[in-house]
Design goal:
The protein has 488 residues and is an alpha+beta fold. It has two domains: 178 residues, Bifunctional carbon monoxide dehydrogenase/acetyl-coa synthase(codh/acs), Chain M, domain 3, CATH 3.30.1650.10; 226 residues, Ribonuclease HI, Chain A, CATH 3.40.970. Strands 4-1-7-6 form a four-stranded mixed sheet.
Length: 488
């Protein structure tokens, strides 16, 4: 709640507001977000003479001058200085913006880097809150929470032309940071790092960061984790003792399991970092992309946050993100960062890039240099393939590895497209003989047992065959029996 530190801020500031969601009907404006092409947040370490402590600049319209309900390009540039600061610490301090801005009543911050999605509520703007106030809050929290920082100045950009002009420079900084972290291997270190920064939105999510697996958000590397844990040993980024290797292929370690179990309060018992199946890494909500299983071809698709429209399976990023976020382990779904897609251990237990059968063009271009040359042209984008039938035809025409898996892939349990088709053909006569048309043969037929509260222990078994169901809510009620004369 508001304290003396924020007495001149027209809304409350405190941890109590972390995780607050601002719905569309309550928002004054959206800053950045999926419908805006240019947005970013960036923190740079500068020489002391280039930073004016406490300075806040707004380039473009203030919040009250932004039309209600609008979606606007947005950028936050935070410049800091301090005698003990190093450029390698930038990513660590930059991620704190997620914390600090979410502590403001009526201000929501999601994601990171060039995928930020912020909303400010109508009530907060009506109370007189401005971007200058937000800058003041950020500066004071950096001084309070990060004593190593001596000076802070903040610049906000809401002028679309300025955001677009600065955007390429921000991307260059992100790319340079990521490149610095490449080369080190998991086997060359004796600790990993954990991060619980997103638990305000996903209470059971714990990121496990290794040299070859970036945080889901794409903002924290192993080196960032090391710097963060040294700066604040009791903070949300901390050391994870590796311990015994349980499965090097799937990426399972005793220490990682102990960490996620403790930090998720027992909700997650095991985690395997390099697979989308079994015990996949949990997902928060800030991940940059989602890998998703396509049972019709036994392959994996990838869709990133900025992709508009449905993926090849007919489902949008937002729907898949809602399905896998929240700190859950969802078999066949895997939240990930772009940098993890560049890792030699990218989903290695599932076949890596040889298992990927679809990816949007924009995402493919970003990681193209890290896709094996023998496979890069065999992975279609939305320009070549728009549905499952087109996908099957493309994969066969281009002889994708998933069509007839090699022995190496078969050892990983990959049956491939022709394997799926063979199974379906073998099942068809049996199903047809039982009165089910051959074309009705299911790919998967999960069984759900549902207990109904207050129904005397009554349970229903629901068998889903060849079904794709997407629903925000399912309600099962016990039907009331009608009295005599009221119908059947």
């Amino acid at each position: 709640m508001k304290s003396g530190m924020f007495a001149d801020i027209p809304v409350d500031v405190g941890v109590v507001y972390e995780g607050e969601r601002i719905r569309k009907g309550d928002m004054h404006a959206e800053l950045g977000g999926p419908d805006v092409p240019h947005k970013f947040e960036l923190l740079r370490v500068r020489p002391s003479d280039q930073v004016e402590d406490g300075k806040v600049v707004v380039v473009g319209p203030e919040l009250k001058d932004i039309p209600e309900g609008s979606k606007t390009p947005f950028a936050m540039l935070v410049e800091v200085s301090g005698k003990d600061l190093e450029e390698e610490m930038e990513g660590v301090f930059e991620r704190r913006l997620h914390y600090f801005t979410n502590w403001v009543e009526g201000f929501m911050h999601l994601n990171q880097r060039n995928t930020i999605w912020c909303r400010v509520s109508k009530k907060t703007v009506q109370k007189g809150f401005t971007l200058k106030h937000l800058g003041m809050v950020i500066i004071r929290l950096y001084h309070s929470e990060c004593p190593i920082i001596e000076k802070v100045q903040v610049t906000f950009y809401t002028d679309p032309a300025e955001v677009e002009r600065l955007y390429p420079e921000a991307i260059k900084v992100y790319d340079a940071r990521d490149a610095r972290a490449r080369g080190l291997k998991d086997e060359e270190v004796d600790v990993f790092y954990g991060c619980t920064l997103c638990q305000s939105f996903a209470p059971t999510h714990v990121c496990v960061i290794t040299p070859q697996r970036y945080a889901n958000c794409g903002a924290i590397s192993w080196f960032d984790g090391r710097a963060a844990s040294r700066i604040d040993p009791k903070g949300s980024i901390y050391e994870v003792k590796i311990g015994k290797v349980i499965d090097p292929l799937k990426g399972e370690w005793e220490g990682a399991n102990e960490s996620v179990k403790a930090k998720s309060l027992g909700a997650v018992q095991r985690v395997q970092l390099y697979t989308a199946f079994g015990y996949p890494h949990t997902s928060c909500g800030c991940f940059e992309a989602v890998a998703f299983y396509i049972p019709e071809v036994d392959g994996l698709g990838i869709v990133h946050r900025d992709f508009k429209g449905p993926a090849v399976n007919g489902v949008s990023f937002s729907t898949m993100a809602d399905s896998t976020a929240g700190g859950r382990q969802v078999d066949g779904f895997h939240g990930l960062s772009f940098e993890y897609m560049r890792s030699p251990k990218f989903l290695q237990a599932d076949g890596g890039w040889k298992r990927v059968v679809w990816i949007p063009k924009e995402a493919k271009e970003r990681v193209k240099d890290f896709i094996p040359k023998e496979v890069v042209d065999k992975i279609p984008t939305e320009e070549e393939v728009k549905n499952i039938e087109e996908l099957k035809a493309f994969l066969k025409e281009h002889n994708h590895p998933i069509v007839e898996p090699s022995e190496d892939l078969k050892k990983l349990g990959v049956k491939g497209l022709k394997g799926v088709e063979a199974e379906k053909a073998a099942e068809a006569p049996a199903e047809a003989a039982g009165g089910v048309p051959a074309e009705g043969v299911p790919v998967m037929a999960p069984t759900l047992t549902v207990g109904v509260p207050g129904a005397g222990g009554m349970e229903f078994e629901i068998i889903l065959k060849n079904a794709r169901i997407f629903a925000e809510k399912m309600i099962i009620r016990k039907a009331e029996r009608k009295g005599k004369g009221e119908g059947k």
